[in-house]
Amino acid sequence: MPILTFAMNGHQVSGHDDETLLQIARQHGIHIPTLCHLDGLSDIGACRLCLVEIEGQDKLVAACVTKPQEGMSVHTDTERLQRYRRTIVELLASEGNHQCAVCVVNEHCQLQDLAYAVELQYVRFPYLYPKRTLDATHKDFVMDRNRCVLCSRCIRVCHEVEGAHTWDTAGRSFHCTIMADMDQPWGTAASCTSCGKCVWVCPTGALFEKGQTVAEMEKHRDFLKYIVTARRTGEWIAEEEEGE
Amino acid sequence: MTLEELHQLAEKERGRQQAFTNRVLVCSSTGCIACNSGMTRDGFITAIKEHDLENEIEVVGTGCMGLCALGPLALIEGDGRLYRNVDGSVASAIVARHIVGGEVVDDNMLDTDDPFFASQMKIVLEHCGRIDPGRIEEYIAVGGYSALAKAITEMKPEEVIEEIRKSGLRGRGGAGYPTGLKWDVSRKAPGDQKYVICNGDEGDPGAYMDRNVLESDPHRVLEGMAIAAYAVGANQGYIYTRAEYPLAIERLKVAIKQAEKHGLLGNRIFESHFNFRIDMRIGAGAFVCGEETALLRSIKGRRGRPRPRPPYPSENGLFGAPTVINNVETLANIAPIIDRSGAWFAGIGTPNSTGTKIFALTGKIEHTGLIEVPMGIPLREIIFDIGGGTPDGTEFKAVQTGGPSGGCVPKEHLDLPVDYESLKAVGSMMGSGGMIVMDSDSEMVDVAKFFMEFCVEESCGKCIPCRVGTRHLHLLLEKITRGEATADDVALLEELCIMVKETSLCGLGQSAPNPVLSTLRFFREEYDELLKPVLGYEPSKPEADPS
Ligand SMILES: Cc1cc2nc3c(=O)[nH]c(=O)nc-3n(C[C@H](O)[C@H](O)[C@H](O)COP(=O)(O)O)c2cc1C
Ligand code: SF4
Ligand code: SF4
Ligand code: FES
Questions:
Q1: d(CA B87, CA B64)
Q2: Which of A132, B76, B389, B444 has the greatest CB tally within 10 Å of its CB?
């Protein structure tokens, strides 16, 4: 696999030609905000938070789906990108019904983290207050669509990792919602194995475990890395820790 | 079929047609059918029977003749006279007075020397309205499938691509990507399985060029696809069109069957090793499904949602195989280029935009209809000479090209040549060919709002800037038209437009702000006039000093 060298924010970095700009940035300690991306899932380039500039190219590209080219010069944090990222988070904040103070993942929410990261002080757009539904028909979990940012991580983990494909998107434009099976109550969705993977990958409090109260739920997403690695290597038992 | 048999079939059909002393061509495309051209046809048939001329005069239902606003249209092939608004009684008058009596029926006659006809240049539409789209024999009689024969029997695939490259043909689906280059990439991409797809989704409001080509001359598109397939090494093609186009679907199905029956599609075409099949895929009618990556997903039966490119379909398309996706009109240009040469085609239009382009003229214009003009023609000529200007003497204000993805061109740019680069330079685009004319009564902010509403509804919802951004753009435009907005709102509108344009995932979101940006550029005063009056306040005068 050829190794390419190029510049990121003026520093020389290197990476394999099949790695994404996002992966290479992370290996070099350069932070690029993301939302739809999650290690272990396919990338869809949907949230547009990871957009970066490439010198000599008009179009911005999503770092999570772009491969490097020898000698290119990438900028990940220009004033323009910062402005666009703030607007994206602003748009998200106006789109759903996000009441952080009463949310199970308050303080452990990736949308909140993003809002802090882009220093969102106020939202210039009117709140849309969409009519959205809450589905508590599943025995263990709840889907509160009011808090959904439509990142589709739940859909992808269910399809790609669990293999159940319980979730999908219904509707289009701002009528998009995440639906279970044939748009039916989650509790009646025959394909759902109740594995809970969707709950763990959800960046917000849209998917959560029953029995949790405000600010109680922290989501651990490491499991995904182990499953995906094991699937690739065919080794399902953790290697013994070396030494000690 | 062999080349010999193709020539024989053409001869036979020409002989059959010449056995009639005259032919009456009645437009049977969607526009004229809507004006009841079925009755017209029956009217002719009845009248001809009454005069005992069944064996001398043939009545043929054809595709579109272009001037849809004046339908039903009928053409007397013998002397080329064209009649408008032909209902049943006019039809019998034409038979009695024109065909039998030899004098024209003045009231309904159209002047074919009128610039509407005279300034056009028909390449793609050359057979539209001249042949019966339901009979492959008529297409073959006017030279149909001879380009395919030539490509297969005389040319190497590389030579076909070279000819297309020389022609300078650029994609007519909107982006204007050079077709030869696209084919070359697919040809060189590794893989045994390759596909050719005809994009007939045509989702922008006001556009019906592709529908017309499919309805009026379906074999032309099949032939173009087969040549493309031969050039890139594909053996399977798909035509993607929408369920809203039932007549086009019907005629395509018939055309595919006929072509298969004559061995022009299927195995060992012209006794070569080239095999090619075409299937239809019908979409449910979503604008975004015209975007090529969404279209690919839709063909597979999945939700039509775009994905990031690269990889481009020409390398990694349908089922991961190299796939050429071309617009209907692009494909309809292929046969004449192979027939007559790339150099001939390159001589038409401008150096960077060669050939002709079909436009659907709609809105505040005298002659609504479908026209084909050489690239580079000034807008003024299209709107005033061909289109006849605005009706009722109102003043021309602007013309929207490129539909919801394009922008308006105001009257100070009327002398702009219509080509890809010039339109882009004024903030519009060629798009697929819709041209909506606006006169002094049209409110430009309303126009922008109309297109934005369309984009809001048609956004697939995948990416945030388009899904939420277009919604806020529409809300801001509504606020402005309600007279409740301030200058800050207009500034926010402009900022959000640029953000949505630069950050959206696919062409829909990237171009959705164009109508707003271009009306802001040329008609900003119309936005300003709608702003909420700022409450004036005058600093109070200091009280007169009593002392
Ligand atoms: C939102 C959107 C809608 C589109 N709709 C169409 C369409 O209806 N027909 C079409 O030919 N191309 C359409 N395109 C362009 C296609 O993606 C693609 O570029 C085209 O089919 C390529 O063919 P061409 O090179 O022959 O133009 C659309 C693009 C976008 C972004
Ligand atoms: S439910 Fe959660 S994971 Fe699923 S789309 Fe919504 S925010 Fe993303
Ligand atoms: S720009 Fe709009 S239509 Fe295109 S992917 Fe994004 S949401 Fe979908
Ligand atoms: S993380 Fe790259 S687009 Fe969402």
A1: 17
A2: B444
Q: What is the pLDDT of residue A243?
A: 43
Looking from the CA of residue A153, the nearest atom of ligand 2 is 3
A128-132 long-range contacts, CB within 8 A, separation 24+: A128/A94, A128/A95, A128/A174, A128/B468, A128/B471, A129/A97, A130/A95, A130/A96, A130/A97, A130/A174, A132/A96, A132/A97, A132/A177
Does the pTM surpass 0.90? The reply is yes
Mean pLDDT, to the nearest integer, of B483-499? 97
Ranges of each domain in chain A: 3-76, 83-233
Give the tens place of pLDDT for each residue, A154-165.
999 999 999 999
CA of A20 to the centre of ligand 3 (A): 22
- In chain B, pLDDT over 90 holds for what percent of residues? 88
Across the interface, whether the CB atoms of B496 and A47 are under 8 A apart is answered no
**Alpha helices of B262-393 — where are they, by DSSP H?**
292-299, 328-332, 334-340, 342-346, 379-380
Residue B505 and residue A48: Cβ atoms within 8 Å? yes
Domains in chain B, ordered, with CATH?
A: 3-112 (3.40.30.10), 143-346 (3.40.50.11540), 356-439 (3.10.20.600), 444-529 (1.20.1440.230)
Nearest residue in B to A130, CA atom: B468
Is A94 within 8 Å of B502 when comparing Cβ atoms?
no
Check residue B537 and give its pLDDT. Answer: 65
The amino acid occupying position A54 is I
Residue B532 contacts A, CB cutoff 8 Å: no
Q: Edge-to-edge strand order for the sheet containing A134-135?
A: A134-135, A141-144, A207-209
Alpha carbon distances (Å) from B32 to A100, A199, B67, B319, B359? 59, 57, 9, 40, 18
- ∠ at Cα B470 (A47, B173), nearest 5°? 90
So what's the pLDDT on residue B542?
A: 63
Q: What is the pLDDT of residues A179-234, one digit of tens each?
A: 999 999 999 999 999 999 999 999 999 999 999 888 888 888 888 888 888 888 88
What was the pLDDT predicted at B61?
95
pLDDT digits (tens, 9 = 90+) for B62-74: 999 988 888 899 9
Output the pLDDT for position A244. 39
Q: Which of B428, B388, B403, B453 is nearest to B201 (CA)?
A: B403
Return the pLDDT at A232.
85
Query: Looking at this protein, which amino acid is placed at residue B244?
Result: E
User: A135, A145, A152, A176: which to mutate for ligand 2, most atoms within 8 A of CB?
Assistant: A152
User: What is the secondary structure of chain A as a DSSP string?
Assistant: --EEEEEETTEEEEEETTS-HHHHHHHTT-----SS--TTS-----S-TTEEEETT-SS-EEGGG----TT-EEESS-HHHHHHHHHHHHHHHHHS---GGG-TTTTS-HHHHHHHHTT-----SPP------EE--SSSEEEEGGG-----HHHHIIIIII----EEEESSGGG-EEEETTTB-GGG-TT-----HHHHH-SSTTEEETT--TT------HHHHHHHHHHHH---SPPPPP--
Backbone angles phi, psi at B250, to 5 degrees: -60, -50
**What would the CATH number be for the domain defined by A3-76?**
3.10.20.740
Residue-level pLDDT at A226? 84
pLDDT of residue B336: 98
The CATH topology of domain A83-233 is Alpha-Beta Plaits (3.30.70)
**pLDDT tens string B511-524:** 999 999 999 999 99
Predicted confidence at residue B539, as pLDDT, reads: 60
pLDDT at B540: 63
